[in-house]
Amino acid sequence: MGASSSTESVSIEQREAESIAASSGALPALHTTFCTLADPNSHSISLQSLQKCFSLTYKNPICEAPSIPDAFPDLLDHFGSAMIDLFFMPEKEGVSWVGFVKGYNKCSARMSSSMSLNNLLRVFSATARKAGLPLNLEFESDDADCKISGFLLPDDVLLFFWLCWTMVWDSRNLRSSKMKANLCLPDINHLVISALTSSEVGSNLNVWNCNLSGLDVQLPAGKFISWVLSTLSSLPDCFSQFVHARILSCVTQEQQDDSESSLSSEVGETSTSNLCVSSLLSRGIAWAISLTMRNTISEELSRVCFLTNMEAEETDENLLYRSSLHGRGLNRLWSNVEGYQAPLLMLISSHLEGASESSNTEKKCIIGVLTHQGFENKDTFYGSSGSIYAVHPVFHAYSSTGKEKNFVYTHLHATGYEPHPKPVGIGFGGTAGNERIFIDEDFARITVRHHAVDKTYQHGFLLPDQGFLPFEAPISEVEVWGLGGGRIKERQNKLKKREELFTEQRRKIDLKTFTNWEDSPEKMMMDMMSNPNAVRREER
To answer: What backbone torsions phi and psi does residue 395 show, to the nearest 5 degrees?
Structure first.
């Protein structure tokens, strides 16, 4: 059953499989799970037990998008059985120890991103087939690095992203102490539209008023794979993370009743409304940005994505500034972000002027900027790394090029006289006075210039239909989120308290030193005014 200490009875196939699993550190967990799930007589796991271990049983999911496609619940119902059929090799009595380890290795062993994405698409295709959904993907062979042909429709892309989201949601909730939470599906239309417009077939889409449901646009599989690998680099990892998390929790899951697999729908509605009603950083936006990187910043963003109802209040610690809450302007921003020396995410929302004249659709744009350090009051550019994002209505990510380091420009009014004053405001990319993104000091307007002026960030458009001329728009909302973790926030709070203490001490007057009229400052001022030329001895 895999636990035998006899080296003679261990086959070469078993040794190879165990060696691969051991390299990822999962072998002890696999032993424990297998011993718990396996039948002591047959020394194998029944298909029913294994399917239960990997099933996604979420009832009444909550959706931030207008509606949930009818096909999605069927997709979740058939996920477990489709996955077992693909990666595990059942024998007559079930899945043996070798088959169990080899199946895990196929799902979670170290492999390239392209191979992981192929596995993910293969699971999606097999699940859709079992659920009776038409999917036009064809796999050249059973190998993880095989060529995939065919195409995806917009509805297919949406279901694929939601299946990936559900796997990550499940993995994170299994790791949480509050592990039971209702599934909340984010609005990810900006990701679907981005995938479609990455190919010529979606170049004519009206991104402002695009109804994706039933849209007959065929996105070639090769184009979709290239877009995912270049834009959402960590998306292929969601399947292996899900498998690993389920292996670790399978023992405890066996001891729980199926009826406890999800909370009531009322709980899910509460968790959604707490986070997403008034925030620019919705779950879908936070998830999209987190998928563009693999670091601690991604983990902090994921905390915002996958909060449960009981954790929703913790987001207040991440939100450093919101213009509608703290007031508009650079000075108001500075009083909230000063001293926070860690990565920051700024989101700027604007409405394109004149949009209502030609269409009833509100043309709302959101641009994001991720800095890897806190803001500083300088009249020159600074920073070591960062990224800028077109967030809504189409998602695009532009990281640093390495050619220049004009990442951030944050300049307040100078305290003294400046013969040649520098622009007051916040800028990203470009050069002084010719920034790629510039926000004025009152947070009234944002200026976005063509990427030709910028050598710091990768080229690409931040706004739909953006031309070569600078584009200005009124700002609706500005948010800044701290992504440095709890310790950085505590350090900033200590600095703030220290500054407040010093300020309060400077305002206080020690009245004991002024009880004598001869020593009072009032008498000194009167004496100087009465005879300013009088010689006074300075007492030392």
So the answer is: -95, 130
Say if 263 falls within a structural domain.
no
Average pLDDT for 36-65:
86
| Cβ atoms 290, 302 nearer than 8 A | yes
What radius of gyration, in Å, describes the C-alpha atoms of the chain?
29
- The verdict on residue 266 lying in a domain is no
**Of 256, 277, 294, which residue sits at a domain end?**
256
pLDDT tens per residue across span 136-153: 999 998 887 889 999 999
Which residue segment(s) compose the domain that 409 sits in? Answer: 318-484
Residue 470 C-alpha from the chain's centroid = 29
Is 434 found in the same domain as 503?
no
Q: Where are the beta strands (DSSP E) in 335-484?
A: 344-351, 364-371, 386-392, 396-399, 409-411, 425-431, 434-440, 445-448, 471-482
Instruction: Note the pLDDT tens digit of each residue in 334-352.
Output: 999 999 999 999 999 998 7
- What tokens appear for 229 in the block? 């690998």
Write down the residue that tokens 């059929």 correspond to.
85
CA distance 289 to 388: 10
List residues bridging with 152 in a β-sheet. Answer: 219
Query: Within this chain, do residues 462 and 496 fall inside the same structural domain, yes or no?
Result: no
Whether 169 and 215 map to the same domain: the answer is yes
Q: Are residues 493 and 474 in the same domain?
A: no
Classify residue 538: in a domain, yes or no. Answer: no
- Give the type of residue at 169: W
User: Which pLDDT score is estimated for 65?
Assistant: 78
Look at phi and psi of residue 484 and say left if phi exceeds 0, alpha if psi is from -120 to 50, else beta: alpha
| Helices (H), ranges, 277-433 | 283-290, 296-305, 315-318, 323-326, 330-337, 355-358
Are both 479 and 496 inside the same structural domain? no
Separation CA 195–CA 288 (nearest Å): 12
Q: Please measure the distance between the N-terminal and C-terminal CA atoms of the chain and give it in whole angstroms.
A: 91
Q: How confident is the model at residue 108 (pLDDT cuts 50, 70, 90)?
A: confident
Per-residue pLDDT at 271 exceeds 80: no
* Total number of domains constituting the chain: 3
Give the DSSP letter string of 170-222: HHHHHHSSS-----EE---HHHHHHHHHTSGGGTT--TTS---TT----EEHH
41 and 154, same domain (yes or no) = yes
